[in-house]
Amino acid sequence: MISTAVLFSTHHLPDHPDFDIDAISGLAEWRQATPMLFKLLLGSSAQAITWPLYDDGEEHVCVLAAPMAQARASWQALAALMDKPRDAAAIVARSAIASLLANGEQWLVLDGVQLIGHDIGTPEFAQQLQAIAAEAAALQAALLCGDREVLAPLLAANMDAIGYWCSSASAHLANIEERAVEELPFMQRLNVLAWVEEAQCYEVTAIADPAVHGLVTPYGRWIVPLEMQAVDLGSHYAEEGWITYAPATQPGCQGLLDLNGTIVLPPAPGALYVISPHLAQQIAPDGTSSLLHLPDGRLLMDKVCQIGQREDQLFDFERDMQDNDERNVCGVIDATGMLVVPPQYSSVQDFGTRKKIAIVSQRIGERFLFGLVNSKGEPLAPCQYTFIDSATTSSPPKLRKNLVYAIDAQGLVCMLTLDGKQAFKPQYAPAHHLHGVTAQSDFLFVLKDGMVWRMDFAGGLLVQVDTLDGFRADISAQLNQALGLNKQAPVERNSYTPAQLLELADHDQLRAIAALLLQGDEALARRCVDLALEELKEDDPEEEYEGDTPEAACLFLLWSTAADALGHGTTLDWKSVDEIAMIGQHIAVPALRDFAWDGEEDGASITDGFEAIARHLAPHGLQLVNMQGGEDTYWLAVLRDQDRKAFEAIARQSAIEPVFY
Question: Which residues of 91-107 are buried (b: 16+ CB within 10 A; e: fewer)?
């Protein structure tokens, strides 16, 4: 639902016995903000009242009201200061405002409840309502003394200062919803393409000119009029508050509108992508990219690319820094474009929710070394460690007694404090190549003189455990028993190096597999395969991928590319129950945009959450799948119903055991 400010007129206020909620008339509206004129018309007589349109509004004050007589007087005084209208549109607008204010009703009511970010009845709501009343009084004072500087936006007749005036604004007495086209006479001369829920508009074209697109509400307000000659509308950004458009008069250019249809960024050559409500990426025809702040269009950063939202709600980006090592160009910004981590790393993992630290890496020579930074981007631990412990490759550091397990560049174990300092001087190598074996909850297994020891987190040796061979044999036996591998001999499988996959894999089959993971999007599947092959070229040449065929061996790599690079999947660990409600932010499937989940009502476990997602996807012909069952980490994807059998067949070839919910 789009937050909107609406002006109503009424004969009586709710505390009057003759008040009738059905007798209210609409005057004006404006999306996402309260125009200056709405406040000016309320003036110093604005009073907070109850408003029964809202359930909580029956008991608590939530809107502002003022006598209509004062509003008329304020409009007349303002009109006297305004220049004569220069065009027909300005004449019509002034006439409409004057006539609607003079309709004989006694009260003017400003409903801005949707624009106040607090619940009705809370002290915070009351404070913001009072602040609007104070602003209304200040504007009337400026009008009475003829302060043109304060009133400049109104005198210039800016739409965002005046608002949209029409009696059909009373449509906001109810939610704006799609209606049958045959019920709307003005739509009979238009070709309806789609109902755009995020913009609460129909996307339409003129029957005589189907190339030109527009957006119009069910009550006849044109957000993007056909006269704008938009041949391409990007209304999929409406949830963020913006609409991209390409005018027929400027081929190859794109501009940006807000949800009122006001031009925010004039059309410019190249492409435009909305990143967040406050950020846009502009790509020039020569491929150079810039990050812009919204709504002012201010340049925040040039030569920036690969912008993507993270699990911690920040944004990764890469910078084209030609004078520096091109491999260490990754940084992080917040949703407003403020720099969080400078672009001097090869990767920046998520920040913790409580301990605001993140693992970073740099490529130094031929090695990737890891360090820690805080939420201000300040280095805590330099990038001099070959490993820093985390739950996944994107997670924050894993804490054990407020310490982080790490291995330094010489291959020796240590523990890092939360400020990045070493808890002790590294002296011993880890006793096992599996980090989860070496690092226990309150001690480490380390190697000294061919023997395995337990060591505390202060670097002190506790007790000798076994010889290295005996320890590793014991660990292997425990793992085999836990995995049930002692009962039968492991099945030998084909394995392929990156070079072999690049040489042997059939690209058409890879694209077919990728298309399964991308709901049949062939163009995106080609991009997915290209990205996966590029990753193979940069992979460790001794790495091995298992599968009956080269294509099957690429399956998990294709999933990783579809998830991480293209947003069509996500990784959750068994503790990530809180992420279920935000699954639509992790997996870019339109069917998940309106998914809602309440752990108290729908079950408290993460499996309950996955089943709730599956029920939500079922009417859309989609299924939720965990790529590899039996793991603490869930590798999630969304498949079409008709693709399940093909996916299961490929999974069997690749030693992957998917779980469908």
Answer: eebbebbeebbeeebeb
pTM of the complete model: 0.65
In the chain, how long is the greatest CA-to-CA distance? 97
Whats the size of the chain, residue-wise? 661
Tell me how far apart the alpha carbons of residues 355 and 399 are, in angstroms, rounded to a whole number: 9
State whether the Cα torsion 554-593-177-641 is positive or negative: positive
Residue 550, SS3 per DSSP:
helix
List, in sequence order, every beta strand (DSSP E) within 181-320: 190-196, 201-206, 209-216, 222-224, 230-234, 242-247, 253-258, 263-269, 271-276, 279-283, 289-293, 299-302, 304-309, 315-319
Task: Give the number of C-alpha atoms closer than 13 A to the C-alpha of residue 304, restricted to the C-beta side.
Answer: 26
On the question of a cis peptide bond just before residue 295, with omega within 30 degrees of 0, the verdict is yes
Name the pairing type of β-strands 25-31 and 4-10: antiparallel
In the chain, % helix, strand, coil (3-state, to 5) comes to 35, 30, 35
Residue with the two structure tokens 């709730």: 612
Closest CA relative to residue 381, chosen from 390, 370, 391? 370
- Distance separating alpha carbons of residues 275 and 316, to the nearest angstrom: 11
Amino acid at 325: D
Give all strands (DSSP E) within 437-512, no chain letters: 444-448, 451-455, 461-467, 495-496
Give CA–CA dist 595/609, Å, rounded.
Answer: 11
Q: From the centroid of its chain, how far is CA 411?
A: 39
Token pair recorded at residue 144: 């009475």
> Could you tell me the two tokens for 442?
């309150």
Residue type, 124: E
Mean pLDDT by 10 residues, the chain (661 residues): 88 90 84 95 95 88 95 94 80 84 90 92 95 96 94 89 78 71 88 92 92 92 94 88 94 95 94 93 92 94 89 89 68 94 93 92 89 95 94 89 94 95 96 90 93 94 91 84 62 80 89 89 89 89 86 88 84 81 85 78 71 89 85 86 86 80 87
- Cα distance between residue 419 and residue 372, in whole Å: 9
Rg (CA), the chain: 31
Question: Residue 252: what are its φ and ψ, rounded to 5°?
Answer: 80, 10
**Helix spans in 573-643 (H):** 583-586, 599-602, 606-617
State the Cα–Cα distance between residues 512 and 571, nearest whole angstrom: 23
Residue among 278, 330, 269 nearest 305 (CA) = 330
Q: What is the DSSP string of 351-407?
A: PPSSS-EEEEEEEETTEEEEEEEETTS-EEEEEEEEEE-BSSTTSPBPPBTTBEEEE
Name residue 152's amino acid. A
Cα-Cα-Cα-Cα torsion 71, 76, 80, 86, nearest 10 degrees, comes to 90
Structure-block tokens of residue 98: 């004057």
Is the link from the previous residue into 498 a cis peptide, with omega within 30 of 0? no
